[in-house]
């Protein structure tokens, strides 16, 4: 049984921030005020539990430990027999027994939603409807009420399970909730987690490498400087770090203060224009698309992502290398963080990152991840160091690659999941294959990619499905 909880504790640096936010939330809404809620902890993960407690409390609910005193019981249990381990059936029938989504969705919608729509156990649905503690008009049914957010032209919902079925504009309709989540998330994180997160902000360091570095004793980015600079803390038995990875991380560390300045759309376009000019010199007739956050309409980007191709087979031979060599010789590329080796251009040999658990979806496309610097012109000084990802795709999988590199990351994850679970297909940026017979498909437009996967087309600007 749960005990009444105080707000999650935090380190001192976050306290005032949290209190500020909390006060604002209190003033903003008393969504659950006067309501006693009992949350059954079974089957709910610790972080989600913290979140539910915080959302309920900060919106005025009284959290009670005794389920008999509660008007609303929140539980992730859906089977009667399991629920009966926590609450007597006769008592449950006198309550509204709802899923955790009732809390999160009510907060998201800024009004208490009808309990009946969130009944946790099928056979308690009627009771839950009847026992919903208030029938005033503010208890609108989520299903009956008109949507509080603007609808999109198509049949896309904001709440569908897969991000690929949702319209996700840059400014999310649940922005308020997300802000609350961000605060709660921050304060409920451990120092270890904070450190790992800081490490993964350095290009080339994924969650796996971050954990490894933490285990070695690194606690700050300065420690990483020392680690990658002088190889401190390494022993003979340690797995050798691939040279390519070390130098990439080292450069990213060196330039970290410069690389964290985001760039406006105009600069992305200028970088693309300069690269396109050199590409034309190296191999005339290439096609390209700026992908990533820029294509999703983001005002500011952290890097430039360009997918390019050539309609004629054979022209791509060593193209990545030839382009990067030219950019280097002109002083446009100052560093190369990673470039696919000739060997790994073969799909049977994935690039260096492929085997790393933190890069499970690294595709087999030929790519060069570089640091780029715009030259000085009459009107502007030399540009800042910028990260640029250059991805070559064979002509027949060009649109698959464009979809795969447009993101967002969550959208891509759900695209793979959707393709696998609903369509029996495998999607990644380097190709779409049918799982049962490994037949490959080559959609010739972006819309055809969506059609092939049985999805309604979603404009790039509505693929911003990340928090
Ligand atoms: P920003 O660059 O402004 O931070 P972004 O959405 O462009 O935002 P990126 O890290 O540049 O973020 O990634 C763009 C997209 O490219 C991602 O959403 C992901 O789908 C894809 N992507 C990135 N790295 C890889 C990779 N190694 N393999 C396959 N796809 C990748
Ligand atoms: Mg990007
Ligand atoms: Mn990128």
UniProtKB/TrEMBL annotation:
Its EC number is 2.7.7.7. GO terms for biological process: base-excision repair; double-strand break repair via nonhomologous end joining. SMART domains: POLXc (SM00483). The keyword DNA-binding applies. Keywords: Cytoplasm, DNA damage, DNA repair, DNA-binding, DNA-directed DNA polymerase, Lyase, Nucleotidyltransferase, Nucleus, Transferase. It holds the Pfam family DNA_pol_B_thumb. GO terms for molecular function: DNA binding; DNA-directed DNA polymerase activity; lyase activity; metal ion binding. It is an enzyme of class 2 (transferase). Coiled coil: none annotated. Gene3D superfamilies: 5' to 3' exonuclease, C-terminal subdomain (1.10.150.20), Beta Polymerase, domain 2 (3.30.460.10), BRCT domain (3.40.50.10190), DNA polymerase, thumb domain (3.30.210.10). It catalyses: DNA(n) + a 2'-deoxyribonucleoside 5'-triphosphate = DNA(n+1) + diphosphate. The keyword Secreted does not apply. Its cofactor is Mn(2+). Residues 27-120 form the BRCT domain. DNA polymerase that functions in several pathways of DNA repair. Involved in base excision repair (BER) responsible for repair of lesions that give rise to abasic (AP) sites in DNA. Also contributes to DNA double-strand break repair by non-homologous end joining and homologous recombination. Has both template-dependent and template-independent (terminal transferase) DNA polymerase activities. Has also a 5'-deoxyribose-5-phosphate lyase (dRP lyase) activity. This is DNA polymerase. It comes from Sphaerobolus stellatus (strain SS14).
């Amino acid at each position: 049984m749960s005990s009444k909880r105080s707000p999650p504790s935090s380190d001192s640096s976050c306290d005032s921030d949290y209190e500020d936010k909390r006060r604002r939330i209190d003033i903003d809404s008393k969504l659950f005020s006067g309501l006693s809620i009992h949350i059954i902890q079974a089957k709910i993960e610790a972080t989600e539990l913290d979140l539910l407690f915080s959302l309920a409390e900060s919106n005025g609910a009284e959290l009670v430990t005794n389920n008999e005193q509660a008007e609303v019981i929140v539980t992730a249990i859906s089977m009667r027999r399991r629920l009966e381990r926590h609450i007597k059936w006769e008592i449950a029938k006198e309550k509204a027994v709802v899923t955790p989504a009732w809390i999160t969705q009510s907060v998201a919608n800024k009004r208490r939603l009808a309990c009946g729509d969130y009944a946790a156990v099928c056979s308690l649905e009627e009771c839950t409807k009847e026992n919903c503690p208030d029938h005033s008009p503010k208890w609108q049914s989520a299903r009956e009420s008109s949507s509080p957010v603007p609808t999109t032209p198509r049949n896309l919902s904001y709440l569908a399970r897969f991000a690929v079925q949702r319209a996700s504009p840059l400014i999310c309709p649940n922005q308020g909730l997300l802000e609350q989540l961000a605060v709660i998330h921050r304060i409920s994180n451990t120092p270890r987690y904070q450190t790992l997160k800081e490490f993964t902000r350095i290009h080339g360091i994924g969650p796996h490498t971050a954990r490894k570095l933490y285990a070695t004793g690194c606690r700050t980015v300065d420690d990483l400087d020392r680690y990658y600079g002088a190889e401190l803390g390494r022993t003979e038995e340690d797995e050798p770090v691939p040279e390519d990875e070390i130098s990439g991380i080292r450069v990213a560390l060196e330039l970290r203060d410069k690389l964290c300045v985001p760039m406006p759309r105009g600069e992305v376009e200028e970088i693309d224009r300069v690269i396109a000019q050199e590409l034309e010199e190296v191999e005339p007739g290439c096609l390209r698309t700026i992908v990533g956050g820029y294509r999703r309409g983001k005002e500011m980007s952290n890097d430039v992502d360009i997918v390019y191709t050539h309609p004629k087979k054979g022209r791509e031979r060593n193209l990545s290398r030839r382009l990067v060599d030219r950019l280097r010789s002109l002083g446009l590329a100052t560093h190369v963080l990673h470039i696919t080796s000739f060997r790994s251009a073969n799909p049977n040999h994935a690039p260096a990152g492929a085997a790393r658990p933190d890069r499970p979806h690294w595709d087999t496309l030929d790519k060069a991840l570089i640091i780029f610097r715009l030259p000085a012109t009459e009107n502007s000084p030399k540009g800042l160091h910028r990260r640029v990802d250059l991805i070559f795709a064979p002509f027949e999988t060009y649109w698959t690659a464009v979809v795969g590199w447009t993101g967002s990351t969550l959208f891509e994850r759900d695209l793979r999941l959707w393709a696998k679970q609903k369509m029996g297909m495998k999607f990644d940026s380097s190709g779409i294959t049918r799982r049962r017979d490994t037949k490959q498909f080559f959609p010739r437009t972006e819309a055809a990619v969506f059609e092939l996967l049985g999805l309604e087309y979603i404009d790039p600007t509505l693929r911003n499905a990340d928090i």
